[in-house]
Amino acid sequence: MKLGNQTIVFKNRPKIIGNYAVVGPKEGAGNFGSYFDYVMKDDRFGEKTYEGAERKMVETAIVGAIDSAGLIPKNIDILLAGDLLNQIISSSYAARSFDIPYLGLFGACSTMAETLAVGACLVDGGFFNNIACCTASHFSTAERQFRFPLELGNQRPPTSQWTTTAAGCSILSSKGNGPSVTMATFGKVTDWGITDVNNMGAAMAPSAMSTLVAHFEDTHTRPEDYDLIVTGDLGKLGSEVLIDLMEDKGYKLGVNYCDCGQMMFRREQKPLMGGSGCGCSASILNSFLINKIKSGQYKKILFMATGALLSTTATQQGETVPGIAHAVVIER
Amino acid sequence: MNETERNVKYNKYVNAKIAKTKAFPSLFNAFWVGGLVCVLGQGINDLLLYFFPTMAEQTAWSYTLIALIFLASFLTGLGVFDRIGQFAGAGTIVPITGFSNSIASPAMDFKNEGIIYGLCVKMFSIAGPVIVIGIASSIIVGLIYLFI
Question: pTM of the predicted model, to two decimals?
Answer without folding.
Answer: 0.92
